[in-house]
Amino acid sequence: MSGIPCRLRYLAGLRGGRLHLHLPLNLTRSLGSRPPPGSGSTATLRRRPCSSRAGSAMNIFDRKMKRRQKNWASSIPGSERYDYLKEEVGSRIVDRVFDIVRTFPVALDIGCGKGHIAEHLNKDMVQKLFQVDIAENVLKHPVETEIPTYRILADEEFLPFKENTFDLILSSLCLHWVNDLPHAFKLINYSLKPDGVFIGAMMGGETLYELRCSLQLAELEREGGFAPHISPFTAVTDLGNLLEQAGFNMLTVDIDEIVVNYPGIFEVMEDLRGMGESNCAWSRKPLLHRDTMLAAAAIYKEMYGNDDGSVPATFQILYMIGWKPHESQAKPAHRGSATLSIGDLGKMSELITKKNKEF
Q1: How confident is the model at residue 278, as a pLDDT?
Q2: SS (H, E, C) 85-141
Q3: Are 47 and 154 in contact (CB under 8 A)?
Q4: For residues 154 and 138, what is the distance between their CA atoms, to the nearest angstrom?
Q5: What gap in Å lies between CA 78 and CA 256, rounded to an integer?
Q6: 170-199 burial by CB neighbour count: b if 16+ within 10 A, else e?
Q7: Which residues contact 117 (CB under 8 A, 6 or more apart)?
Q8: How many CB atoms lie within 10 A of CB 356?
Q9: Cα(294)–Cα(220) distance, integer angstroms
Q10: What is the pTM (predicted TM-score) of this model?
Q11: Neighbouring-strand partners of residue 8
């Protein structure tokens, strides 16, 4: 293992919806030397307490633990080397903003982290950006951006904003840690202005299936049972319904898979800790036995290993776009008002020729 660099990641491009990342560490952008933007400011808003074990019927995650994990991850030396996934997803979200030919006067970034969305935005897209995160340490080390930013310490589960405040709300890789996702979507809709748009990304249900399966098989073999070590994630089949119930319309939901190759299971888990993406479910098992971990490492390589000795870790990313209703938006046609049937599609060229002759 000593002959293999700790993380070998080469950007191979998108193939069939799967992006394979093996980017060499010395090619990633170093953010540690960048000063915080001069126009930025940090504020703390009073918020409701984080969820407790007995405080809510929908209480899967220990939010206090998640805050500690994110604070720790952002404070370790060289923390920027773990930002490759967040940088990639942040840039893809901004690509979707760019597709909307509009300038947004006021925008909000929920779970902003260091600002991996903000670094890709410009003043032609957004004129003023508010950034919210539950962890104070990540707000102290923002990525440089040309947009005036205002950083706010607040819980993503309980957004403290008035109705009709923002023209655009963005979120990258934070909502999969929210306990009450339907309520969070309703708060996002509430905070948007009419005809405002929400663009977000979160981990999907197939994320880290290789790691999940390897740990479960190893625990069954060595301990006679298994506990959950990977967080439960939302299924893509549920996402559209949740957004619609929250009041969004003109919905778009799509999926990407980002596959990152690592030397082994221990490097996968190290990077998850460095990202602040370790499991924080109440039902998590705090420790794994050494024998179980060694067995899991062997199972991982045997079942999923690549020819070069590395192992893949799959991150399924669910992207969502939803608009707050407004009278100016296009309305769907009434049922039964169509003048053509699906069966006429095969005769489309004939219909077009006939129409042209009429004119």
Answers
A1: 82
A2: HHHHHHHHHHHHHHCCCCCEEEEEEECCCCCCCHHHCCCCCEEEEEEEECCHHHHCC
A3: yes
A4: 12
A5: 28
A6: bbbbbbbbbbbbeebbbbbbbbbbeebbbb
A7: 90, 93, 94, 109, 170, 172
A8: 8
A9: 13
A10: 0.76
A11: none
Question: Sheet containing 41-44: which strands, arranged edge to edge?
Answer: 14-15, 18-21, 249-262, 311-323, 192-203, 166-172, 104-110, 126-133, 149-153, 41-44
Distance between CA 153 and CA 137 in Å, rounded? 10
In 3D space, the residue among 116, 114, 312 whose CA is nearest the CA of residue 201 turns out to be: 116
- Residue with tokens 């024998």, as numbered in its chain: 291
Paired with 126 in beta bridges are: 104
Per-residue pLDDT tens listing for the chain (359 residues): 333 333 333 333 333 344 444 433 322 222 233 333 334 444 444 333 333 333 445 787 888 988 999 999 988 888 889 999 999 999 999 999 999 989 999 999 999 999 999 999 999 999 999 999 999 998 988 888 889 999 999 998 889 999 999 999 999 999 998 988 999 999 999 999 999 999 999 999 889 999 989 998 988 887 765 555 566 677 888 898 999 999 999 999 999 999 999 999 999 999 999 999 887 777 676 667 788 889 999 999 999 999 999 999 999 999 999 999 988 777 766 676 767 676 666 676 776 776 676 66
Residue type (1 letter), 142:
P
Backbone angles phi, psi at 181, to 5 degrees: -65, -40
**The pLDDT of residue 353:** 72
